[in-house]
Structures are given as structure tokens and as C-alpha cells.
Fold this protein.
Amino acid sequence: MRGSWWRRWSTAAVRGAWPDTSADLDRALSALPGLLDGAAVRTTTTTLVGHSAGGHLALWLANQPHPVQRVVALAPVGDLRAAAAWGMGSGAAVDFLGGTPEQVPGTYDAADPATRMRTRPAADVVVVHGDRDQAVPVESSRGLARRFDWLDYRELPGVDHFAVIDPLAPAWTDVLAAIRG
């Protein structure tokens, strides 16, 4: 069965994978409460956590109409226009969105947390980023913190891109604190 990953892989070079990915995210999050109820899992709150490109998706979901109380983005690609300008990931943002910000500005407006969070989400939003990140420049998250004073920004000194997802790294304590609130 071919799902979102197949569409992302097969269509990104042609027109970008963004519209399909956003639709998949909305469908998945809409289905989650029913799936959990069906499995007799009772929840009281929903916290979304994502790392790097997954951090972008978690931040994007913060402004969608889902019952999410907390979003924790770990070393996120939180500014897609900056990611495109910097050529992050060998042009991953441009490929993902199907063009540059000048070519598809509406797509960037729809997908970019740095634009979408001009409307403050109902969920609490926490961004955790290490200052030694070589994959996603920490300046991306610093920029979000400067623009949105309501955002809970936690910069971790001496921490690289992958330490925030390593349960054995000293940074893991800070990540758990961000998730728990």
C-alpha cells in the first residue's frame, strides 16, 4: 500500500509534496481520538512532538483545528523561507514545497510556521534547539523566539542536532521537561 511516504518520494521533484502531506497530517490527527477510544486508551491531553522536519510538521499542526494542548518542536525547521534561502538539506524545503518562496509564495504562506504563527495557536508551543546544531541552524529558532514573544524557547548550550532525540544524552532531561510542561 502506498501512503504519504510514497507520494512524498514520487512527487516531490515534480510539484512538491506539501499539499498531500498536510492533508495526511490532518486526516491522521482527526482519526487519532477514535483510534485511541477503540483501543480503550483514555487521554486527557494531546502533546505533539517532532524533530527537525518533523518539528516543522508539529509547529504547522499547532495552527490546525485539532484538540492539541501542547506542541514541542525539537531542532525544528521552523522558518521555511530561511531554510530555502540557506539551502538547508540540499534544497529540501524547495523540493518539498515545489519551488522557491518567489515561485510559490502561497504555498510557503500555507506551510511555513514562521508565517502561520502570526496567529497565535491555542496550544502551548515549546521550541528546544541546541546551539551546536549543524543540520538546522539555531538562528532559525532564535528568529521564531524574536518574532513570537509567547513562544517558549529553550536553547541548550553545547547540544547538537541529534542530542535532543537521544535518551542517553544529557539534553534528554531538558526535552522531557519541555514535553511534560
Summary: Residues 18-38 form the longest helix (21 residues). Strands lie at 47-51, 70-74, 124-130, 152-156. The chain has nine helices and four strands. The chain has one domain: 45-180.
